[in-house]
Amino acid sequence: MPEHVYKVIELTGSSKKGLQDAIENAIARASKTVRNMRWFEITDTRGHIEEGKVAYWQVTLKVGFTLEE
């Protein structure tokens, strides 16, 4: 197994549906321009309130990807 070097970026995804949707939105968008993503770590979770109800969720993640040779 080859040894890898990883770069880490931070993303924040949002969704009106829930936390998993916010995570998937962030990763899907990043995958359009970032190659070789391998893992993520949730670092923060927030929500936005409007008129006494949860309007949307925000999830901040660290995403690791391997550097190309």
Molecular structure report:
It is a single chain. The chain has 69 residues and is of the alpha+beta class. 17% of the residues lie in helices and 55% in strands. It has one helix at residues 19-30; strands at 6-15, 37-50, 53-66. A three-stranded antiparallel β-sheet has the order 1-3-2. The model has no long low-confidence stretch (mean pLDDT 94).
Features:
69 residues; alpha+beta; 3-stranded antiparallel beta sheet; 1 helix
Radius of gyration: 14 Å
Shape: elongated
Q: Strand pairing plus helix content: what structural class?
A: alpha+beta
Distance between the termini: 15 Å
- SSE string, helices as H and strands as E: EHEE
Topology:
Blueprint: E1 6-15, H1 19-30, E2 37-50, E3 53-66
Antiparallel strand pairs: 1-3, 2-3
Short structural summary:
This protein has 69 residues and is α+β, with helices and mostly antiparallel strands. It has one helix at residues 19-30; strands spanning 6-15, 37-50, 53-66.
